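User: quick one
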Amino acid sequence: MNRLRQIFTAFVAVAALAAPAMMATPAEARLSITLGSPVVEPMPFALPTFVDEGGAGDLAAQISQVVASDLAGTGLFEQIPTTAYIQHITSFGAPVSYPDWQAINAQALVTGAVQASGGQVVVKFRLHDVFANAEFGDGLQFVGTTDSWRRMAHKVADAVYSRITGETGYFDSRVVFVSESGPKNQRQKRLAVMDYDGANTSYLTDSSSIVLAPRFSPTGDRILFTSYSSGFPQIYLMDVGSLAIRGLGEQPGTMTFAPRFSPDGRTVVFSLERGGNTDIYSLDTGSGQLSQLTNSPAIETAPSFSPDGSQIVFESDRSGTQQIYVMPARGGEPTRISGGAGRYGTPVWSPRGDYIAFTKQNQGRFHIGVMLKDGTEEKLLTASYLDEGPTWSPNGRVIMFTRQDAGGEPALYSVDVSGRNLRKVPTSGAASDPAWSPLLP
Amino acid sequence: MKWVFRAGVLALPLLSAPAAALPSFGTWDDARLAAAVAPCWNVASLSEGARRARFTVAFTLDAAGKPADRSFRLVESTAGGAVGQRAFAAARKAVQQCGRTGLPVPPGWRGGTVQSLFAPQGGRG
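Assistant: Done. Structure below.
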């Protein structure tokens, strides 16, 4: 009897364990659906002011504002006004009430805290996937000096951006540009550098000579530019740390301009004008060896390397109009890739390698556009009286360029590679020729 | 003893005839469910690769049409690695967000699996 009781008890136990599954048999019911049209709208996020964990004072609010501004400035995210928040975050370690954030439709929540003492700042944050009721990745913290608080804010924003989009960010980066002032007939142009968002501007040269087309090295520690300090355009190399300047590729009786680094930073390509003809040359910055890459009676300029360093895209009027060509990095027969109506110039290869950005002039309008590296899928992103000189963000998602309205002053603008989110970049005065740095270390 | 025996017997019919418990949803329009999820499928923050990914996600909906957070799984995808995961995360978020108060389910639905194909054909918004 005891044996029978054991068998029956075991049977009941198995039945009890199986019951949920069996009771859930209707869960085997199945529906199949298909979705085909996604929404493309900024993702709502919440970012309560970071908690002051001691000594932070206004820094906590300032860092919070920069992080929120970075994210919202992409056009991919939209900050929910803090007045709508139901839960008030007063402690970094306090549990998050996800229903409260779901109720205001926040899809991402960034919480953070700031601590400052002895000239050092610690910023930490957590990203929450609100509708998954969970943290999105581990918390992170950054440590730096008080005067680098904007960089730390940008780094937080880069980390949040990267986790959500799966792409690297671009907020902790700088832009070198030409700051312009004075009347048209006595224009003064200086090299200036600023955070990508227009903050922290400082000047790298005085206004004693005209400067043009600055370009960062791949590591961001050197800048190439063209100066008229000798009376003719010549290219120069500046050390960003010391601001020391030296000439590059100086050849008697020539003019050099439009320089750009190779991806490994060892080679500079540029245009060299000799006897009325302009070709593209490369200079090994270590050995000083100069190589001619094109040999055509046309004007060939604006060279830009592919990210793998194997090819160079440039502009040439060898066909009779200004068009875009691609050639091997060591020179060789170029292939024309632009084919639409109008004139194409200032091509710049995307850091991702997929797109080439360019300036296009057609029917009295200027455009910033992109095309694939074989010239297909041309897409014009902007249109105005004068748009020119595109430069890519370090992640290849955003393009900055110069815009000038009729009779107006030049200014810097940025646009997403999709053509959305056209924004003016704040600068203290007229500005042109932007060049984006790589992400800072 | 008899009580124990009856408990065992009570469980047996469900084991032997599960099909009988399946409700029939033949007249129900699946598009209602798809339409309820679609407004929350937002790909704005995704990379180009993730936006173009075509993939199938399975998840369970309870009797009230609410998704179970831990039930989401990627069945198949044209994009692998981090790109595929970002695309999957956006789809999961869409179902969770629009399903917060319950998605439309067929009459008689007592919970079950939904298999959803996300096949982007261009954005809107």
